[in-house]
């Protein structure tokens, strides 16, 4: 890897901070959602979680011990601006992040800051949230505030984390905040509102306006880099000689990665395959126009090229074939014609002794190399930063002898093998890879799975009021790779 390669770990505010109602913090949609009965698998929430708000010095020590050069974390919008009004900031929130950023820098760890990792202020949600045009101005106002407060020291910014996961999980499937269901309800196919598409549009515009505002107002003085982080699986046809399977695999990539990458990294607009297919589906259901909102020329010009690097979150790989009535319910958004699933021969994340691991994560290191090559070729060889990659263990099942799963051999193998494929992409294929952030520094609140799924290099004891952190074997493995 490059001499200046960024080696880090990643987290997100709602997943680690706790102190959900302390020192003037406003509430976010995740506070609301996690407090809703039945929303979270184990009935938990992020009220305290790792208690990073009080224990941030420990987190910095852990990063130092890992020999990380960088740390990716997110800011809590509602902790900084409880009423989403930048003329009324929460001084305690600003002070917290200032202490944290200064602490990282004092230890020679550079911050990579995500502005938005899913915890929208509830007051913004109450006015329509991502479904309202107004959110674009609100987001810009928040970003402007963050650049003005922290941009003298933060040189690496991510506007929005994984918009397609939020669009699909939050609006449609309804399994993440704000929990808006619809796509599989009987009324869904006659509902022209189609929240997930509206939301994808306001997210793209929020990102683009923020990028341009950074360029015009801050770049000359602060000299940082800013982009978006997109999650993508790698996907292959189940049978490569079957044209339907080939088409399904490409469509899955277009409608997940391409949904946001094509507008930002290519020509300002959604991929043609998406536009054509959604129009066809909309017409078949008696709609006059496509439920995918049309982006104007002005909007396309605004969105196109708003990146300084390609932020990639990658975990797993899928096989694809065309969708059928029986498999429709598994689609992440309503017009997905591809059915995707893991090859049964792939190793599943989770303890080998357990009958089930984490539901969705299968270990396919070669998928990372293929995906990096795909991105490089499709989007004009951008500098790529892997902003997340990691491996989970299922925690709730009794696992005698190693209840903390400190001897996490599988995670060690995951890290080593995925990084080896990333190295091949860099050395053998010429992909411009700039950094790697491991998800995640320590066990934390894993969204709808609560604390049942653990991704941490450090185990966190959530029964213990001190939230004691203990390094797993994988922490040493990762450090050794960084050192060597
Ligand atoms: C990412 N999928 O989310 C998020 O950025 C993290 O906050 C999260 O903790 C991490 O990955 C692990 O889940 C994803 O189903 C959630 O494909 C789901 C998927 C991918 C990423």
| CATH fold assignment | TIM Barrel
Could you say which structural class the secondary elements and strand pairing correspond to?
alpha/beta
Strand content: 15-25%
| Overall structural domain count | 1
Instruction: Give the distinct bound molecules.
Output: 4-nitrophenyl beta-D-glucopyranoside
The Cα radius of gyration reads: 21 Å
Features:
alpha/beta, 16% strand, 484 residues, beta-glucosidase activity, single chain, TIM Barrel, 8-stranded parallel β-barrel, 3-stranded mixed β-sheet
Quick take:
39% of the residues lie in helices and 16% in strands. By secondary structure, it is of the alpha/beta class. The strands form 6 sheets. Strands 1-2-3-4-7-9-14-16 form an 8-stranded parallel β-barrel, surrounded by 5 helices. The protein has a 3-stranded mixed β-sheet with strand order 8-10-11.
Write the layout of secondary structure elements.
Elements (H helix, E strand, L loop, with lengths): L5 E5 L2 H4 L12 H6 L17 H15 L3 E5 L2 H4 L10 H16 L3 E7 L5 H4 L8 H17 L5 E6 L1 H8 E2 L7 E2 L13 H28 L2 E7 L2 E4 L5 H25 L4 H13 L12 H7 L6 E4 L3 E6 L15 E4 L5 E2 L13 E2 L1 H14 L5 E5 L4 E2 L14 H19 L5 E7 L13 E2 L3 E3 L8 E3 L1 H11 L1
Helix pairs in contact: 3-5, 7-9, 8-9, 13-14, 14-15
The chain binds 4-nitrophenyl beta-D-glucopyranoside.
The site of 4-nitrophenyl beta-D-glucopyranoside (PNW) has 13 residues, from loops.
Family: Belongs to the glycosyl hydrolase 1 family. Klotho subfamily.
EC number: 3.2.1.21, 3.2.1.45, 3.2.1.46
InterPro entries: GH, GH_1_N_CS, Glyco_hydro_1
């Amino acid at each position: 890897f490059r001499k200046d390669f960024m080696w880090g770990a990643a987290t997100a505010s709602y997943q680690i901070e706790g102190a959900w109602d302390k020192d003037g913090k406003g509430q976010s949609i995740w506070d609301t959602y996690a407090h809703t009965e039945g929303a979270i698998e184990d009935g938990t929430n992020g009220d305290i979680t790792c208690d990073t708000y009080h224990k941030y010095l420990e987190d910095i020590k852990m990063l130092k011990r890992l020999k990380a050069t960088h740390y990716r974390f997110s800011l809590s919008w509602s902790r900084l601006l409880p009423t989403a009004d930048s003329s009324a900031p929460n001084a305690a929130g600003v002070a917290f992040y200032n202490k944290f950023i200064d602490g990282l820098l004092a230890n020679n760890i550079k911050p990579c800051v995500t502005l938005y990792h899913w915890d929208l202020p509830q007051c913004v949600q109450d006015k329509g949230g991502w479904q309202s045009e107004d959110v674009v101005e609100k987001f810009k106002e928040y970003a402007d505030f963050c650049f003005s407060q922290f941009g003298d020291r933060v040189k690496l910014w991510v506007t929005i984390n994984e918009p397609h996961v939020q669009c699909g999980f939050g609006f449609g499937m309804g399994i993440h905040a704000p929990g808006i269901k619809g796509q599989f309800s009987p009324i869904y196919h006659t509902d022209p509102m189609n929240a997930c598409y509206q939301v994808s549009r306001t997210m793209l515009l929020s990102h683009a306006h923020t990028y341009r505002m950074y360029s015009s107002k801050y770049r000359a003085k602060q000299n940082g880099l800013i982009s978006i982080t997109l999650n993508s699986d790698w996907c292959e046809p189940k049978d490569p000689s079957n044209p339907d399977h080939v088409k399904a695999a490409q469509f899955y990539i277009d409608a997940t990665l391409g949904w946001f990458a094509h507008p930002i990294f290519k020509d300002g607009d959604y991929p043609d395959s998406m536009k054509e297919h959604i129009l066809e589906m909309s017409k078949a259901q008696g709609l006059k126009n496509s439920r995918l909102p049309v982006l104007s020329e002005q909007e396309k010009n605004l969105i196109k090229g708003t990146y300084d690097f390609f932020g990639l979150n990658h975990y797993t790989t899928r096989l694809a074939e065309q969708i059928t009535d029986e498999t429709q319910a598994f689609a992440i958004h309503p017009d997905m014609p591809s059915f995707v699933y893991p090859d049964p021969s792939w190793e599943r994340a989770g303890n080998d002794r357990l009958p089930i691991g984490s539901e969705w994560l299968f270990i396919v290191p070669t998928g990372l190399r293929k995906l990096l090559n795909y991105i490089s070729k499709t989007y004009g060889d951008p500098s790529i930063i892997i902003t997340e990659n990691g491996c989970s263990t299922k925690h709730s099942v009794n696992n005698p002898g190693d209840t903390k799963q400190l001897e996490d051999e599988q995670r060690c193998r995951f890290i080593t093998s995925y990084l080896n494929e990333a190295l091949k992409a860099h050395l053998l294929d010429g992909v411009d890879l700039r950094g790697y952030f491991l998800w995640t520094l320590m066990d934390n609140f894993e969204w709808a799975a609560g604390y049942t799924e653990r991704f941490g290099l450090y185990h966190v004891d959530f029964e213990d009021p001190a939230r004691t952190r203990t390094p797993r074997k994988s922490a040493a493995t990762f450090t050794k790779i960084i050192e060597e």
